[in-house]
Design a protein that fits this description.
The protein is mainly α. It is built from 25 helices and no strands. Among the domains are: about 120 residues, no CATH class; about 120 residues, Leucine-rich Repeat Variant (Alpha Horseshoe), CATH 1.25.10.10; about 80 residues.
Length: about 500
């Protein structure tokens, strides 16, 4: 290779190096100028970065870091904010992290949000340095440091963050609450409740929602009394809802005893809270609390309890429900009757009566008779009918006489049928055509009279229940034959 070619190559490499050396500063200068209109209030996501200067620095990657560190000291807050966002989108560098923390410490403007966002991208390794800023006299710096620490989700910093819930600056207190949302710290619950009340008084609804979200995440039985105290206070609705949600996450042994007391409380809000929470429990716990609520002095609470038992009640609640059906408040009594029918049917206590079947002891009969008796009360007849329909699988209307006749028929039909069949058989065994004694005729006459009464009763039932009408007609014909036989074979002078 000639000397000329070698020299030419050296010149070319030198020119390229010089070009690169001069090009990066020129690019940086151009991008800094474009960052003048960067909005520091929207730095959270690179997708939302619409500034060409920020995008340009990001494209430069690691080579942009020195220029961005210098830009953090710029007098223009838009440039500083843009530089922070760009650093947050470039692979982390120790010098950049140090510069961002220093910038965060000295920042007084809106770009503090950009700094805190950028630091959150560096991960928890910078947490110790960020935590040092919690002692900064500036509320803005403390709030920003809290936002960064919260983004790391490190539970070990929760005790360090929690005291700031009582900070004089509400911005700092809210930042502390948000930092604890994903690192729950139950000891902070009392302070979260107090902060929520302050924010409500100031009308800071958005901030209040953040605090309530953190409260919902900090569930622990050790602080339950603080939350229970709020369940009777409806002055701050978001806080009340959050406390209801919080209480609903407690283990049942910690919650049920309180609910049993709350449902009979004289405080209406507390009673309502108890019923809201109760819906999230299992059936057995709901039944326990609902049974306690039946002793409430408030009719509305008793009705709610019966409505819950309607859905989950077991056999053990039946006596209490029947007692509620005697309540002086007719709405409560009506709800109890509806619940009685549903609970008995759902738990398959006994069975729905079917006419003309063999009679066995049916545990359901007690409840059927009870409901039929309630049909006499005009205020309860519709509820009693619903109860009876559930117990009997029969659509019988609301008329007491109709249900009473049906029950009479059910209880007596099989009995009459057995008695009539036995009587007719005894008549057939006497055989008057062959044995015409006075004694046999007297027996036959007596049996015919008994059979006549039974047939008349069955004919009365058959008029209401066509299912047995044909059988009764046949028995009437048999009885008439026996009557004819008595007259036909009656001797002129009956002798022994």
């Amino acid at each position: 290779m000639s000397v000329k070619k070698i020299l030419a190559g050296i010149v070319i490499v030198g020119l390229v190096a010089a070009g690169v050396f001069l090009y990066n500063p020129l690019r940086a200068k151009m991008y800094l100028g474009k960052m003048k209109d960067f909005d520091p209030n929207t730095p959270q996501s690179f997708d939302r970065v619409r500034n060409a200067g920020v995008r340009g620095f990001i494209a430069m990657k690691g080579s942009a870091v020195p220029y961005l560190i210098e830009a953090l000291k710029d007098s223009d807050p838009h440039v500083r904010a843009g530089a922070a966002v760009a650093l947050g989108n470039i692979p982390p560098r120790p010098e950049a992290e140090k510069a961002l923390i220093e910038a965060l410490k000295n920042c007084k403007g809106d770009e503090i949000r950009a700094y805190s966002w950028a630091l959150s991208r560096y991960g928890s390794k910078c947490a110790p340095d960020v935590a040092k800023l919690l002692d900064d006299p500036s509320p803005a710096v403390r709030a920003a440091a809290l936002r960064v620490l919260g983004g790391f989700h490190l539970k070990k910093y929760a005790p360090r963050i929690a005291p700031f819930l009582k900070d004089e600056s509400l911005d700092v207190a809210v930042a502390a609450a948000r930092a604890l949302e994903f690192t729950p710290w139950p000891p902070a619950v009392p302070d979260l409740i107090a902060l929520a009340r302050k924010l409500a008084a100031k009308g800071m609804k958005k901030e209040l929602d953040h605090v309530c979200a953190t409260l919902r995440a900090s569930v622990d039985p050790s602080v339950k009394e603080h939350v229970f105290a709020v369940l009777g206070d409806g002055s701050v609705k978001p806080l009340l809802d959050a406390c209801r949600s919080w209480a609903g996450k407690l283990p049942p042994p910690e919650l049920v005893p309180y609910l049993c007391k709350a449902v009979v409380s004289s405080n209406k809000v507390e009673r309502e809270s108890a019923f809201v929470i109760l819906k999230g429990l299992n059936a057995a716990d709901i039944e326990t609390v609902a049974l306690a609520a039946l002793s409430s002095s408030d009719p509305a609470s008793r009705i709610k309890a019966l409505e819950m038992l309607y859905d989950v009640g077991s056999e053990k609640c039946i006596k209490a429900v029947m007692a509620a059906a005697e309540d002086e408040d007719k709405e409560v009594a009506s709800a109890a009757l509806k619940t009685l029918g549903k609970v008995v049917a759902r738990n398959k206590i006994g069975w729905a009566p079917v006419l003309s079947t063999s009679q066995k002891d049916n545990p359901r009969e007690e409840y059927i008779l009870f409901a039929i008796g309630k049909l006499k009360d005009p205020a309860l007849r519709f509820a009693a009918t619903e109860c009876l329909e559930a117990l009997t699988a029969r659509n019988g209307g609301t008329d007491y006489e109709d249900w009473n006749n049906w029950w009479y028929d059910f209880k007596n039909t099989e009995k009459y049928i057995r008695e009539l069949s036995a009587t007719l058989k005894r008549l057939d065994d006497i055989n008057l055509g062959e044995s015409k004694t006075k004694e046999n005729f007297e027996k036959a006459k007596k049996l015919v009279d008994e059979a006549e009464k039974l047939v008349e009763k069955l004919e009365e039932i058959a008029a209401r229940n066509p299912k047995i009408s044909r059988w009764v007609e046949k028995q009437r014909k048999k009885l008439n034959i026996f009557k004819y036989s008595i007259e036909k074979y009656r001797p002129l002078d009956i002798m022994n």
